[in-house]
Amino acid sequence: MDEIEKELSKPGAWDKPDELTPVLKEKSQLSTKLDMYDGLAEAKDDLDAWLELAQEEPDEEVLSALESQLGVFKSRLAGTELATMFAFEHDKNNAILEIHPGAGGVESQDWAEMLLRMYTRYGERKGFKVTQLDFQHGDEAGIKSVTLQMEGLYAYGLLKGESGVHRLIRISPFDSSGRRHTSFASVDVYPDMDEDIEIEVKDEDLRIDTFRSSGPGGQSVNKTSSAVRITHIPTGIVAQCQNEKSQHRNKATALRLVKARLYERELKKIEESRKQDYEAKEAIAWGSQIRTYTLQPYRLVKDHRSNSEIGNVDAFLDGDLDEMIRNHLLFIHAHGKQS
Length: 339
What we know:
Helices cover 40% and strands 22% of the residues. It is an alpha+beta fold.
C-alpha cells in the first residue's frame, strides 16, 4: 500500500488519469482486504470483551449480546477464510455472468429469469455493482438470455463455480393441469479482464452488427441503432451490449466481452478441471447439471459436485448463496481444482 501511495503522490502522476486506473484499482482492492482483516480483528476484540463481561455478569441481556457478537465474528471469519482460497490469478477480478435457458420454451425461459433474480440479489448482498450489459426478453415470459457484470473484489472467485447447467423441478405455473416439470438453464461465468487482457483479436476476424436496443430504458433506447453485436468468426463466440445509449461505448464493452471469453476459452483448454469450452459444451439437458433445485414433491437445493444440500430453497433463490458457494470452494480447494 505504501508503494502505491508513493506512486500516486509523484509529481505529474495525475496528469494522465487513465494511466492510473490500474493503480487505483489495486489500491481499492488492497483497502478492501485491509478493511476485511481489520473488521475480523475488531469483531474478535468485541467478542472477547463480551465474553469477559458475561463471565462477570451472566445475565440474559449480556448473554444475548454475546451470542449476537459471536454471530458477527463467525460471519467475518467465514469471509476471511474464503479470501485465503482465492489463489487463482483472476479470482479478484470482476465477473461476467451469462444465463441462457435450455430447451423447453417458456418453462426454461422463466427459470432463467428466476436465476437472474437470484444472482442479482446475491450480488447486491455482497455489495457488488450489478449491471445488465445485455438482456433479451422471452417470447411469453422469462428471458432468452442475459449478460451481467458483477463489479467487486473476488466477484469472479466467488461466482466461477456457478458455471454449468442448473435444473429446476417444480409444479409448472404455465401448465393448467398442474403437472410437474423439469427445466434447465446454463450459467457461464468468466473474469472481466478490463483492459489488462492480452488477447490478439484481428479486425478481419470480427463481424460487427448494430441494431436498436430492446432492453429497459423507455422509448429513447429504440431511436438509434446503438446496440452492438460482435461475432468472432474463427470461434463463433458472440457478445453483444445494449446497456449504453452510445454505440461507441457498447462496441467497446462487447469487444471486451469477446476478449474475455477468448481468454477463458484458452484457460479451459489448459486446465484439466475445465474440460468444457464453448465449442464442446454439454447439452443444457438431463445428466449434465451441476445443481438441482427441487420445489416439488419436496424442497431442496443440491449441488452435485460437493454434495452440499440446502433446505431453505426460498432464501437460496432470494440470493442467500453464501453457504453453498463456501462449501463448493472448500471442495475444490481440497481437491486442488480451480472451479
